[in-house]
């Protein structure tokens, strides 16, 4: 950044940073302050990571920008991940911030093929929050950990002044073992891979929004919040040569696919009608002007699978409770590298861009 400490011309402000020396592209250049979109999992999130955090921290592991880091300690292959949870409201149909804190981190580890083993848990509590509410969240978190087969091994508690914490926030970090022969990362997608989603998309974002905004859609939409470790183990039981796994949380399926396309320098072609969307979610999105492909999920994954294994992997997924609605939605191609397109029911093609921010903020 340019030096702004020198003498200024009369009448000019000296407390405004000079962005002329920045190399990062708009819109980050045009945002002197953090906005909600910087935490939405879209283009703004990508820019602040790539142009501020990654250069500041450095390191080859971070540069992969996977859901979890793959590390080796004492000859043992591990996956390591951390995530923070600021969802509002704290409880919603199908889950709570406690469930998210476990399942979100377990799923990040699973996207590297790892079996989650231990979690850390940090609670940031706002002064004045009701102790029974904290207890409810802690009980939900503990139950989710037991269901996922992980142990909360360490933690921390901090309290901030009233008005500075929105009730409570949670951070969890997790560590798990990566099986021998497994190499799952975004850079491994290649033309010819078949793209599979594990089930219908969009339920989590709509469930959170319906409670937050007091909306009714004729039928209650429940979050899909779940731990995906068992489903991934089922898939690895078919073949350990899975190329990419990603849980499409913030930014939805669209953001996940764009990130993979860019990381692997490949194109992705979707079939619009093949993407499963629950009727209630489709109706809610139609009313609100949202695209289900951009709505967050918390219990779904997208997989890039070598074509020769795709049929068998899909069949195995459908035998698992969390993959009963699994479907092939597209393929990886050489054309338009770094871009995702969808073929519409009318025979046309549309570009599925990386969202700027999140259509529905504060969903995890």
TrEMBL record:
Region listing for Disordered, in residue ranges: 1-20
Annotated Gene3D superfamilies: PurM-like C-terminal domain (3.90.650.10), PurM-like, N-terminal domain (3.30.1330.10)
SUPFAM superfamilies per UniProt: PurM C-terminal domain-like, PurM N-terminal domain-like
InterPro entries xref list: HypE, PurM-like_C_dom, PurM-like_C_sf, PurM-like_N, PurM-like_N_sf
CDD domains listed in its UniProt record: HypE
Ranges for domain PurM-like N-terminal: 67-178
Start and end residues of each PurM-like C-terminal domain: 191-336
GO biological process: protein maturation
Signal peptide, first to last residue: none
Pfam family, one: AIRS_C
Protein family (similarity comment): Belongs to the HypE family.
NCBIfam families: hypE (TIGR02124)
Full protein name: Hydrogenase expression/formation protein HypE
Source species: Streptomyces nanshensis
């Amino acid at each position: 950044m340019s030096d702004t400490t020198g003498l200024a011309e009369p009448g000019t402000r000296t407390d405004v940073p000079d962005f002329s020396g920045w190399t990062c592209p708009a819109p980050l250049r045009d945002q002197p302050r953090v906005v909600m979109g910087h935490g939405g999992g879209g283009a703004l999130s990508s820019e602040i990571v790539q142009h501020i955090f990654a250069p500041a921290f450095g390191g080859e592991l971070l540069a992969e920008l996977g859901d979890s880091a793959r590390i080796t300690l004492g000859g043992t292959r591990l996956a390591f991940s951390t995530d923070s949870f600021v969802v509002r409201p704290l409880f919603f149909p199908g889950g709570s911030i406690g469930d998210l804190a476990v399942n979100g981190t377990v799923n990040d580890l699973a996207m590297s093929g790892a079996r989650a083993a231990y979690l850390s848990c940090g609670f940031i509590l706002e002064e004045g929050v009701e102790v029974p509410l904290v207890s409810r969240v802690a009980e939900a978190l503990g139950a989710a950990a037991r269901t996922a087969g992980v142990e909360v091994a360490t933690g921390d508690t901090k309290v901030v002044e009233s008005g500075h914490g929105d009730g409570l926030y949670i951070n969890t970090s997790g560590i798990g073992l990566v099986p021998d022969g497994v190499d799952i990362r975004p850079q491994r997608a290649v033309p010819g891979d078949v793209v599979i989603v594990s089930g219908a998309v969009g339920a989590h974002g709509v469930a959170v929004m319906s409670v937050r905004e007091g909306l009714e859609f004729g039928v209650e939409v429940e979050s899909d919040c779940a731990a995906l470790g068992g489903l991934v183990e089922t898939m690895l039981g078919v073949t350990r040569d899975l190329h990419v796994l990603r849980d499409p949380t913030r930014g939805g399926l669209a953001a996940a696919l764009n990130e993979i396309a860019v990381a692997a320098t490949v194109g992705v072609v979707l079939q619009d009608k093949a993407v499963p969307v629950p009727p209630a979610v489709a109706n809610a999105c139609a009313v609100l002007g949202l695209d289900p492909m951009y709505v967050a999920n918390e219990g779904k994954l997208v997989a890039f699978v070598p074509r020769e294994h795709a049929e068998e992997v899909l069949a195995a997924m459908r035998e698992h409770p969390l993959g009963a609605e699994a479907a092939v939605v597209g393929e990886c191609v050489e054309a338009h590298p770094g871009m995702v397109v969808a073929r519409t029911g009318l025979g046309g093609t549309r570009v599925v861009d990386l969202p700027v921010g999140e259509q529905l903020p504060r969903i995890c």
